[in-house]
Amino acid sequence: MVLTLNQVDFQDLQTKVRINPETYLKFEDGELVTLQNRFSDKTIEIKYDIMLILYPMVNWITVGELCEGWPPEDQQKIKEHLDMLYQSRIVVTSEAELPQKTPSNLPENLGNAVRINVENHHVMLRDSIRMSCFQRAIQNAVTSESIVMDLGAGSGILSFFAARAGAQKIYAVEKRPDMVMVAKKLAKANGFEEQITFIENSSHLLQANEIESKPTVLVSEILGNAIFEENILEFTIDARDRFLAEGGKLIPGALEIMVVPFDSGEVVDKRLEIGELEKIYGFNFDILKTVLTQKPTLKLEDFNPKRYTMMGDPVCVTHLDFYKITSPLFQQSFEFTPMKDGFVDGFCVYFRAIMDEETVLTNSPWAPPTHWTQMVFYFPTKHPVKANEKVAMEMVYDGGITLWFKEDWSV
Ligand SMILES: C[S@@+](CC[C@H](N)C(=O)[O-])C[C@H]1O[C@@H](n2cnc3c(N)ncnc32)[C@H](O)[C@@H]1O
Hints:
Shape: elongated
Largest sheet: 7 strands, antiparallel
Radius of gyration: 28 Å
CATH architecture of the largest domain: Distorted Sandwich
Structural class: alpha+beta
Bound molecules: S-adenosylmethionine
CATH superfamily of the largest domain: Hnrnp arginine n-methyltransferase1
Number of domains: 3
Helix content: 10-25%
Strand content: 25-35%
Distance between the termini: 71 Å
């Protein structure tokens, strides 16, 4: 009979052994009892009225060997207890089926639509603001004890920062084989090949046993021009939940989505076009006027605030705390306060990535430029606004971002 105990309460060794949901009891005939499924959400304490001597560093312990030399009644009690568990057949599985760790529930092809080639990496490497923000945050977070996961390693630059900061081990996870090849060569040329383990795969397809030691720092620079198109939320939550050690650090630790309303000054009004159709066909198209004009057009561009009339201060729509969020999807109401009477037909959307307490990386159009452009939403109609009268809006991320005026949808 073989007993495995992953977590033992050595404080109270005399009376109890703590069995967590990942604890398995293996029997001589090869059968394995795991408490995983039955009691997945809590730690169970199984009381023993005898003393168990366990070697802290040993995973598999042969109870028979341990029991040797013990009073026969103690041996008997252990066996009875295990038998009792076995009889109740909480869950019986084979060793091959040992649950590794919850597999990712993200779709297999997630992220495949976006391709970042070596020229894009060159552009990113030349973005000194991006580089210095990540470098500083990595230096602040990494110690000689750190195990780092660089999610979306690309050229490997952030892994190199972590290596230079003295990290014990770095898992550089990159799905593109060409970039892994480049990054491996760069690592070798810079003497980091011992510290960095390259894994050529998408993070959500990694198995738990590919990451031997739990990362204590998770760096994810998969921020796109449309903020979320590289699925930073999905991949970060997935890697955090499946790999990050308890109390581990995330870089960035949060993402704020900022919005600023403006008047483009252009006269584009689909309502007028639909009015023309009404005249031609003699139908009432009022609802069409509303429905067809609610959806803004998204352009990724270098937004120049001087070209337009800003109609309000930037608003933080949502603060996505990477330590806490459980779902990548969100629907968030927000308001802006027009600073004058006039019209609003556009919104510039940008991010503030909170790297740590000291550092914020942003692609705000008012901040020094980075390689990121901004997301600019142009509405096909002008919304009249009045100074200081709040305007209610909604933003949704459901795989892509969109926003709308609440008033439009209440019609
Ligand atoms: C924006 S680049 C950043 C590269 C590098 N970390 C840097 O800061 O220069 C993102 C990289 O992550 C890779 N990538 C995106 N999602 C990934 C995922 N889930 N798993 C592994 N690689 C991913 C892309 O192929 C790309 O090379």
